[in-house]
């Protein structure tokens, strides 16, 4: 867990101001809207060039089991760089992307936003809960929910996503495909 570095003036932990919190909250809401509208090129503009996106496959384990629900060395739904995400999104635009014709309709809900400083002065560790409601055709409906941990950086161009980890709740998807970002 990242702890807030001390403020050298008074040795108190550095905290996000209300202004920073509001900026990050609005950033996350805008990002959700871009995903809902499938404006992936605009979504990619919110990311740092070193962006990584990791969505591990959870495993249901007994409490006594030493292995956790989410492990880095196990399979992941996504373990992608920015370039790999761009490739995924570009495939959905192709005529041969039968799973996206007609396109999926998404609504992303973002809540429980917490902002804390990272070790770097311009970086923020942001925790949130995200739920994606997916609708396809006339009668296909899927809910996908998880906890997110983002690293968001303040740059001269504005806020940028540097890293996202999504810990989804579902161990088994009942949908026919997993063609959404959360």
From TrEMBL:
The keyword Heme does not apply. The keyword Transcription does not apply. SUPFAM superfamilies: NTF2-like. It comes from the Bacteria. Pfam families: Ring_hydroxyl_B. CDD domains: ring_hydroxylating_dioxygenases_beta. Gene3D superfamilies: 3.10.450.50. Its EC number is 1.14.12.19. Keywords: Dioxygenase, Oxidoreductase. One of its GO terms (molecular function) is 3-phenylpropionate dioxygenase activity. Transmembrane segments: none annotated. Belongs to the bacterial ring-hydroxylating dioxygenase beta subunit family. This is 3-phenylpropionate/cinnamic acid dioxygenase subunit beta. It comes from Pelagerythrobacter marinus. The lineage of its organism: Bacteria, Pseudomonadati, Pseudomonadota, Alphaproteobacteria, Sphingomonadales.
